[in-house]
Amino acid sequence: MLKNTRNLVFLGLMIALSVLLSRFFSFRIPLGGVDAIRIGFGGLPIILAGIYYGPLAGGIVGAIADIVGYIISPMGAYLPHFTFVSFLTGFIPGLIVSHIIKDSKNYWGLVLAIAIGQGITTLLLIPYFLYSLFGQPFLFNFIPRLISFPLQVPIFAYFLRTLLSYLPVNYARDKTS
To answer: Residue 29: helix, strand or coil by DSSP?
Structure first.
């Protein structure tokens, strides 16, 4: 039971950290009068949960962090599309690391997992949803994200590799994925 409690506490801390980093410690860049781009480290705890505890845990952390973040600090109407994107933010890298790369401390493996996950979510899905829901041109949101993408991915990978080197080997990953 202690191990399960420890896991829940860790995942709860990742949710809280993601909300804090996303909603209160990030920079928003308005484009066309709308907060189009948010630059910050809110995805880092979500990705960490996915890599350390498995894809399902990372996805759940991402979805709950998005919902809690909306309740605490809403930025417009609630749209489940973006909760789905937050779910995928933790799920995709966790899936890639646990089933393909197998070594969560390999820097280039982390770069690959984060690049694929962020490429699908940040580069493709978010601009697509902004286009389909609000009519914002796809390229209007895609190009600025494409510029920040090559900077964000290696920084996330570096921080994750550093954090993972201090965490003990996680035997719970097989039970939660």
So the answer is: strand
The answer to whether residues 143 and 37 touch, using CB atoms and an 8 Å cutoff, is no
> Of 51, 54, 44, whose CA–CA distance to 15 is shortest?
44
Asked if residues 15 and 7 have their Cβ atoms less than 8 Å apart, the reply is no
Tell me the pTM.
Answer: 0.89
Tell me how far apart the alpha carbons of residues 6 and 121 are, in angstroms, rounded to a whole number. 29
The per-residue pLDDT for 140 is 85
Please give the average pLDDT of every successive group of 10 residues along the chain, which has 177 residues. Answer: 78 96 80 66 95 95 97 90 97 95 88 96 94 90 88 94 85 48
Domain limits of the chain? 2-172
**Phi, psi of 34, rounded to the nearest 5 degrees:** -125, 140
- Note the pLDDT of residue 2: 44
CA angle centred on 108, ends 28 and 97, rounded to 5°: 85
> 2-172: which CATH architecture?
Orthogonal Bundle (1.10)
The CA distances from residue 56 to 28, 94, 95, 133, 146, in Å, are: 29, 8, 8, 27, 27
